[in-house]
Each structure stands twice: as C-alpha cells, then as structure tokens.
Design the sequence.
C-alpha cells in the first residue's frame, strides 16, 4: 500500500446474497443525490484503492 507513517490502511469486506442483490444495491448508491456534485470530496486517495469483483466461494 505504500502507506506513509501518518496514514491508516482500512480493509472492508462486503458480502451480498447474490450478484443481483449487489447490482441492485450499487445502482441505488450511485443514484443517491447526496453523492453528486462538488460538495462530495473523497476522504481518501482513490488512486491507491484496491477492490475486487464477485466470486462465489462456497455454494450450499
């Protein structure tokens, strides 16, 4: 991560019941007007953000 001494690395894990549920939730988040415009500033350096996709680990 190349974190500086005064930075904190945050790890988050979100689990959805299905790909469809994830897609529905992400669409609602992106449509939220509170996230639009110049008033919203990212509280972190998004250029160093790492994220993954959807993969089923265990199917019961």
Sequence:
């Amino acid at each position: 991560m190349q974190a500086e001494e005064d930075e904190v690395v945050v790890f988050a894990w979100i689990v959805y019941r299905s790909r469809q549920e994830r897609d529905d939730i992400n669409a609602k988040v992106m449509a939220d007007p509170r996230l639009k415009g110049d008033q919203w500033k990212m509280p972190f350096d998004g250029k160093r953000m790492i994220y993954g996709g959807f993969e089923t680990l265990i199917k019961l």
Summary: The chain has one helix and no strands.
